[in-house]
Design brief:
The chain is mostly helical. The protein has two domains: about 45 residues, no CATH class; about 70 residues. It is about 60% helix and about 10% strand. A two-stranded antiparallel sheet has the order 1-2. A hairpin with a 5-residue loop joins strand 1 and strand 2. Helix 3 packs antiparallel against helix 4. The chain is flat.
Amino acid sequence: MYLPAVMELAVLTSSGSWRRHVVAVRGFNPHCHAARMASWPRRFPRSRWLPVTDGNDMDRALGRQGRIVALVIALTMILWFVAQSAGDWLGLPGRYAFLVDLFALAGFLWALIVTWQIWRKRRKMR
């Protein structure tokens, strides 16, 4: 596993501002790079304070699949609630509510299957 000589972290302070912390790894002196540290922005975008992997393509693909699954679960739940409320408000018969329930179950079943596939791929990678 690759470890950088310096780990740079962005920490949210109690006052709501971002503070940069530089931590030396393997005997590296971070104070020698004052000019580089001074050029950093005061506010950090999200990508600066999230952990960065070594760039493994399979990890990225599985992470992307996991985010898609999470989005499908959230949207399925929201659309199911909205459709149930709209059906009640419009006075639609119960068979439409049953149809909406089947679509929601299909979305959740798809998410379950894809999550199981992600779990198996990660387990196989070890």
